[in-house]
Design goal:
mainly beta; 16-stranded antiparallel beta barrel; globular; Porin; 2 helices
């Protein structure tokens, strides 16, 4: 029995070395010298799995009791002090209702599941680290109970790859990163692109469909990120800036209506997003305190035309955003953890006009304020098993009163209870 076990172990290690050898053969040999790479392989599995059940309340209306499942698995493979390979699987299923920001507004979803596979290589040289990475994720979203998995309007898949460089110095640590994202919505296409048979007048159809596109939600993003972390006693500080350019290759910019012309311009939707962030942490064992702040700005060239009220708005998706996030954690000697978090978020649209309950437009832009309170506790039950409970309460208030398309004003709270396994 022991001999068979040793043989299986040797087979697994041989297979692992073959796979990793193939991976590294595609990388520059000057950066990743192979001869000493496989001297000793150490596998460190890391996993965290939780199964929770709970309810979601929206404006005091309760949904049925539903479950939530989260999984994180990462067998970290260490070849030497200089080389590590980190494959990761993370998955999530949520059966509780929730309001998600989709397609530029708050949409009530019934069920969601996401699956992400990623691979990262960490190369360490003295006090510097280099981290190429690649990932693929799939998100499935149900808006109604009778929807079939894989047929949701807002289902999407994301492919990304990037690179991160880190330099640790006596006064602090610098990090620079670049990431490429490609997002596809396989079930989201324009109704106009599917409606040629509805129009008896070919001229009218051609006029309306010119530049319309078919897959308006598909997009490609390029993100640059910079952070600096330093440690002025007794604080840990981190400041960051990121810049993202996002292009929608099949979504034309809406034009101001002119009789006899296409409602779409020849140009495509493009956005620039910038974020400035600052975070401070302090440990006062057993108490841990943190506070974070972020200032965000999104500039979009996409407009919107409301044909029912003959209203055209430029910069429909552009906004400014301010976020403050204080948090507190308490860790007792027996492993019990208490966490409390508060998130305040203020969103001010730069071109989206407010409406009254009947849909009539006002002269000022929409603003929206979010308050999210989170409380959680984790108690060790047996070995690596923990009992866990969480409660979230969110308030969204806005000067927007017309909500036939998206939710702007609501109160929502969720409670969850269950077990967590950590390895």
């Amino acid at each position: 029995m022991r001999e068979n076990s040793e043989n299986m172990k040797n087979i697994k290690i041989s297979f692992l070395k073959t796979f990793v050898l193939f991976f590294f053969l595609t990388l520059p040999s000057t950066l990743y010298p192979l001869p000493s790479l496989f001297a000793e392989v150490k596998l460190t599995p890391v996993a965290d799995v939780s199964l929770l059940g709970g309810k979601y309340y929206l404006d005091s209306d309760a949904a049925t009791f539903q479950g939530r499942f989260d999984a994180f698995v990462s067998p970290v493979i260490k070849f030497s002090d200089s080389h590590e390979l980190v494959p990761v699987y993370s998955g999530n299923y949520s059966g509780t209702q929730d309001i998600q920001e989709l397609a530029g507004g708050g949409v009530l979803t019934r069920q969601r599941q996401t699956h992400t596979f990623s691979l990262k290589h960490v190369y360490t040289r003295d006090f510097d680290k280099y981290k190429p990475r690649v990932s693929y994720s799939k998100a499935l979203i149900k808006e109604t109970k009778d929807e079939t998995w894989g047929k949701g309007l807002f289902d999407y898949a994301t492919f990304s790859m990037g690179f991160e460089a880190e330099q640790e110095r006596p006064h602090g640590t610098f990090t620079e990163s670049y990431d490429y994202y490609k997002v596809a919505y396989p079930n989201y296409s324009t109704l106009l692109s599917q409606s040629q048979s509805v129009f008896n007048d070919t001229t009218t159809f051609n006029e309306l469909s010119t530049n319309a596109g078919e897959n308006p939600m598909d997009n490609i993003s390029h993100r640059l990120g910079f952070t600096y972390a330093w440690f002025p006693e007794p604080l840990n500080m981190k400041a960051g800036y990121d810049f993202t350019y996002r292009g929608y290759g099949d979504q034309a910019v809406a034009a101001r209506p002119v009789t006899g012309q296409s409602p779409f311009k020849s140009g495509k939707r493009a956005e620039i997003m910038q974020n400035f962030s600052l975070k401070a942490n302090r440990a006062l064992k057993p108490l841990y305190l943190s506070v974070g702040a972020r200032l965000g700005w999104l500039s979009s060239n996409q407009g919107s035309y409301d044909s029912t009220r003959n209203e055209y708005m430029e910069d429909y998706y552009s906004y400014m955003e301010i976020v403050l996030s204080p948090a507190m954690g308490l860790v007792l000697k027996n492993g019990t953890q208490f966490n409390f978090g508060l998130d305040w978020r203020r969103l001010c649209y730069l071109g989206r006009l407010k409406q009254d309950a009947a849909g009539n437009y006002g002269s000022s832009e929409i603003n929206q304020t979010f308050w999210l309170t989170s409380i959680s506790v984790r108690y060790p039950v047996f070995n690596r098993f923990f009992a866990r409970a969480a409660y979230n309460y969110q308030i969204s208030g806005s000067n927007m009163r017309y909500e036939d398309n998206y939710r702007y004003n609501y109160r929502a709270n969720t409670y969850l209870m269950g077990l967590e396994w950590e390895f």
